[in-house]
From TrEMBL:
It comes from Rubellimicrobium roseum. Transmembrane segments: none annotated. PANTHER family: CHORISMATE MUTASE. Substrate binds at residues 14, 31, 42, 91. SMART domains: CM_2. The keyword Isomerase applies. Keywords: Isomerase. This is chorismate mutase. It holds the Pfam family CM_2. Its EC number is 5.4.99.5.
Length: 105
């Protein structure tokens, strides 16, 4: 692993970006395992896939983290909302679409 300031060539940069991408994919896989488990737990409890207060809590959390790391919170929010929508769709695959919206309750 090289720090960005230690990279001297584009090959160095590309290798490090590829390394970070592998780590990100592994983290997304870990997050997805939690999403899958949430769907298993929500089913018997008859909880919807989308719980708006939790969605907004997650968004607020990532906006705060983005700011801490010098990233634009608005951009991170957009990215995370896509991730959340994908996660909810995945939960709906387990729960069924009728459990997709809390307003449907």
């Amino acid at each position: 692993m090289k720090r960005p300031q230690d990279c001297e060539t584009m090959a160095d940069i590309r290798a490090e970006i590829d390394r970070v991408d592998r780590l990100l994919v592994a983290l997304f896989a870990e997050r997805t395992a939690y999403i899958d488990r949430a769907a298993e737990i929500k089913g018997p409890l008859k909880l919807p896939a989308r719980i708006t207060p939790r969605v907004e809590e997650v968004v607020a959390n990532v906006r705060r983290e983005a700011a801490v790391h010098g990233l634009p919170p608005d951009l991170i929010e957009k990215l995370w909302r896509r991730l959340i929508d994908w996660s909810i769709a995945r939960e709906e695959g387990v729960l069924g679409p009728e459990w997709g919206q809390e307003e449907a309750r």
